[in-house]
Amino acid sequence: MTKYIYNTEIFTSETSESFYLLGAFMADGHIKKSGSVSLSSKDEDWLSLLRDVICNKLPLQYANSSKTVKAIVINSKIIRSWLLSYECTPQKSLTLKFPEIPEKYLPDFLRGYLDGDGHIGVHKQSKSGRNKKLNFNVSCEFTTASEKFSTKLSEILNSLGFKNSIKTINPGSRANQFINSREIIQKNNIYQIKISSNYAYKFINYIYYNDKLLSMPRKHDIARFILANCFKHKENKRSETDIIDLLNNYHCITDKYSSKYAVCVGKANSMG
Question: What CATH code is carried by the domain that includes residue 33?
Fold first, then answer.
C-alpha cells in the first residue's frame, strides 16, 4: 500500500478550513469501520481542490460502476479520529447529528455542508399578483436523510435570523426522482431545509464572507453572481426587462457547468 503524507493540521488546528472540511465530509464523506475515510463527488474540480489541501498525491478514484462519481480515500488515524470527535461517524446517513461548532466557524461549516449536499440558485417565478409581474427568487437548500440533523440545522438557522422551512420527501413520491439536480433512489425520508428570498441573499452573504474562502468553485461563482446582482434594489421595483436580463446572465454561469457535470438546467430551473 502506498503511504501518503497527509496535512493533518488542516483538521486539528481547528480553523475556518477545518470546519469547512467537516461540513463537506458530513455531507459527502464516508467513514468505514475498517478505518479509511473517503469523500466522493460528481464535481471533480471541487474534489481535486479538497484533495490538494489534504494530500496532493492522492489519486482520484471512481466511486461507482457507472463512473459518474469520483472519490479520494484517506488512511489517517488522526483525520479519522478528528472527524469522529465531531459526530462524523460510520453509517451516518440516518443518524447524523449536528456537531458542536464554535459560532465563529458556523459560516464555514454550513458552506462546506452546502457544497456537499445543498443547492444555491436563482429561480424564475411565474407572473403573479395583482399586476401579473414576472419575478425571481433566490434560494438555498440543504438536504439530509437525518431528521435530527434537519431539525437542529433549522433551529440554528432561525437563531441566526435566517427564516427557513423543512420539507419531508417520502419514498415513492415523484419529488424524489431528482434532488439538488441529482437522481436519487430513495429508501428513506429525505429532509430539505430551504431558505428563500431576502433571507437566502443574507445567508449567502453570511457564508461567503470573503472571496478567498475554501469553497466549491461552481457554487462560489453562483454566490458571487447573486451577491452582485440580486439585491441592488427592491425586487418589485425591477422592470421585467431587468429580470429577464438577470435570469439570462445567471444561466450563462450555470450553463457553462451543466454539460461538464451532467446536471439538469433549464430556463425555469437552476443549478447548484
Answer: 3.10.28.10
